[in-house]
Amino acid sequence: MKKNILTIVIMAATIINLVLTIVMVFSIVPAMNKTNKLIDKVAEVVDLEMEKEETENYSVENLEAYKITFDAKQTINLKSDPGDAEAHFAVIEGVTISFNKEAEDYEKIKESVANADVYITDFVKEALSEQTISTLDENAVKELALTKIQEFYGSKCIVRVSLQGFMFQ
Questions:
Q1: Chain center to CA of 107
Q2: 156 close to 103: Cβ distance less than 8 angstroms
Q3: CA nearest neighbour of 128 among 162, 164, 167, 77
Q4: Which of 7, 33, 56, 123 could form a disulfide with 148 if both were Cys (CB 3.0 to 4.6 A apart)?
Q5: CA neighbours within 13 Å on the CB side: how many for 85?
Q6: What is the pLDDT of residues 85-142, one digit of tens each?
Q7: Measuring CA to CA, how many Å separate 33 from each of 19, 23, 45, 47?
Q8: Parallel, antiparallel or unpaired: strands 89-100 and 63-77
């Protein structure tokens, strides 16, 4: 009789253990998965920031400005905001890009830009025309234009874009 009661107690404890394990699996594992995804996202951002810092190893003394001045002010139409019937535009007088003189491909990129600076102005105009009056931000335009220029030339030699006489309405 004692063996039967002991067997029943052991069986009950085993079943309770199994039920609690199942409850833990269904309650803790999803939370752990969410935490793991969050940690992965944070790690990606940290890696991107480290990668960005690596590409920005230059000092102000190593920058060379290349100025593109337009004959007349350039007027660029902005995208329309939903529900806004009024036309908005931006005006720029020129663009200045900065080269990192210590970059490996500095001479090649500088010569290429000097021979065809129209690409630089096109990228700036594209970046401006993608904005609406409510989302227009000069720094965002500069970053977008810089990214497009760096991708086009396949180089990080060009490190900065500045807009001369930037105005919008």
A1: 28
A2: yes
A3: 77
A4: 123
A5: 0
A6: 788 888 898 899 998 888 888 888 888 888 888 888 888 888 888 888 888 888 888 8
A7: 21, 16, 19, 21
A8: antiparallel
CA 44 – CA 38 distance, rounded (Å): 10
Diameter of the chain measured on Cα atoms: 106
Among residues 158, 169, 105, 161, which one has the least CA distance to residue 136?
A: 169
In one-letter notation, the amino acid at residue 57 is N
Give the position of tokens 């807009």: 163
Alpha-helical regions (H) of the chain: 2-55, 106-115, 118-129, 138-153
Four-residue CA torsion sign, 149, 166, 77, 168:
positive
Name the token pair of 1: 């009789």
Residue 35, sorted as left (phi over 0), alpha (psi -120 to 50) or beta, turns out to be alpha
